[in-house]
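Limitations

Structures in this collection are predictions, not experimental determinations, and the ligand pose is part of the prediction. Treat each record accordingly. The example that follows, with D-mannonic acid as the small molecule, is included so readers can see exactly what is and is not provided: the inputs are given verbatim, and the output is the predicted complex.
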Amino acid sequence: MKRLSASTSLPPSVRKPNYRRAGLQPGIVHLGFGAFHRAHQAVYTDAALEADFANWGIIGVSLRSSDMIHDLKAQDHLFSVASRGADGTQIRVVGSLVGGLSANEEREELLARLADPAIRIVSMTVTEKAYGIDPHTGGLDRAHPAIAQDLATPRTPVGVIGVIVEGLARRHAAGIPPFTVLCCDNLPSNGRVLRRLVTEMAAIRDTTLAGWIAEHGAFPSTMVDRIVPAATEETRNRAMECLGVEDRLALDTEPFLQWVIEDDFVSGRPAWEAGGALFVDSVEPYEKMKLRMLNGAHSMIAYLGQIRGLEYVRDVMAVSECRAMVERYMQAAAQTLDPVPGIDLDAYREQLLARFANPTIAHKTRQIAMDGSQKLPQRTFSAAVDDLATGRDGEVFAYATAAWIGYLLRAVDPDDPRREELKAAAAEVTKGGDPAAILAVPGLFPQPLLENEGWLDRVRQSLHEITRMDAR
Ligand code: CS2
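Predicted complex:
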């Protein structure tokens, strides 16, 4: 079967890059070339290049497996994104990628690129667990495997922070301005978090380097949103039917997409507003809204789905008592927020409910259920703390917490970087029937929750309910 390439003649219904792609030079290195990046930042950059052509091509980097990079290179860096919703399906072939690197196979090429003055932005989507954040301090976790390795051998880094610091060190040594570091993961104040991790690691190497980064670097915070299920054989087969050629990087996603960015870049940026990106002074209110209302509800749906044997988010939304719980969750989460400029939270909630129920999107509850220890603190526990602080009872957050614990009790091997601790704690809970052992896992639950007997009781009661339901 022929592969998608620059010479493929695509059907007229497929939207193609409408700019001089052959002349496009790289300006961005993106770490974490996965599905989310392809359906989000790559699409926004495609729109920016169409509206205002400049050298902002993206080099996609995989820090772990190299398969997708091989596929990218074999397809002239092209791939398709199908947005599927009530109005049917729209397919777009994205042209904003101009290169691909596998960090394992091409580490030196990657570091040379990061030191190239043409690269002005380094963006990333590497998931929460990759950063090595110490849950107690919010700073660098020196025990995190990649952090430990990159502190020992900083010139051949393997982790995201080590790669950024070595890239910046080379630029500093060569007298080149730093690149802007653009974090696109679901972390609160992600730019601020990144600035701290990068300067902390740099300071361990060389305080002059750290001072230079602190003074001249930029780490804008961003809020990113688009539901992008992991691609399956079915995705690729459907893409083949629509394109007439094979696309191993094809994706299905929803029509909705959103990007809110702090406009703080060292050496310019693409005209992402052409794709609908919103530039603001402070991303925090948007980020909090999305983490608590979307991601928090998403995690609860994932655990309820896993417990009830429901494969997709849409299946959970089709169970009326689950849907009602999700709606209550979103309402309670909204009550913990300050007003978000330009956003009506009721309308936002209604839109989320419709997005989760989208019948054409097959988003696996198993995919969202992973890495709970890295996700729930900012999605659920911080909202519970704020809810209790205003005199409310934190009930839905207790229920969501119990759903996670219920999932841990039945999961044989939860997909989580802290799986060993969680498995040991879950075994204790199974023995004694009280969730205390999970609540005691260090650095997970904020102190105000652990000190609130009423809330802890609610977690216990909900866990009883949930495990009874499980038994049924
Ligand atoms: C999800 C997110 O997997 C998860 O944890 O909650 O990936 C979610 O789909 C995105 O943040 C939506 O923008």
